[in-house]
Sequence to fold (228 residues):
Amino acid sequence: MTTRRVNLNTESVDNYLKAIFTLGGPDEERVTSSALAERLGVAPASITNMLQKLAASASPLVEYERHRGVRLSLAGRRRALEIVRHHRLLEAFLYEVLDYPIEEVHDEAERLEHFISERFEERIATKLGHPKFDPHGHCIPEMDGRMPKQVSRPLTDIEQDGKFLVDSVSDQDPLLLKQLKAHGVTPGARLHFARPSQEEFVLRAGSNSKALRLSRTHAGTVRVRSAD
Ligand SMILES: [Zn+2]
Fold:
């Protein structure tokens, strides 16, 4: 049967589209091949190869120029949003209904997202009361692909000490997620943030929790918004 081969193909195309969408951030900036290579764990040569294919198809899924990086076409964006919706709804389902810990939902959703039907997706959405956010605090796109723009900043962009609300945390690093959770740093939590020097990122969630010091890389994965 050829179905399996078609599935695998689709699966890797979907992973590319999703990675470009996620790395591009809320402003949908162009994404470099090296950033994609790192995210997908694929050799840069294969990245170039795949991007050229995606850009050359009858209705191209990406706009790609070798030295300027890549961004999604309208068709590519639509498809990326669909797969992101699957992914984030699955994460919410695993977390809320099946009691998966937050650090485990991403990998599981990564496996399932390519295979669920539209019907299954709709059932999950209904069961959960059409949630707007996944457990990491990321917006779940609506059925028609609409998605409100999240106004938040990574901790690394904040120069002043102060109080903030945790907007979202990255879903990429299970160990870090576990550590953040242990310190009460989860979406919606109130945070006291201090930046004693350029390379020090100190946070405290709630009043009696222990202070948590993050590296620049880790601090960049926590996004916050102002507390008032
Ligand atoms: Zn995820």
Notes: The longest strand covers residues 162-169. Residues 153-226 form a domain with the SH3 type barrels. fold (CATH 2.30.30.90). The chain has eight helices and eight strands.
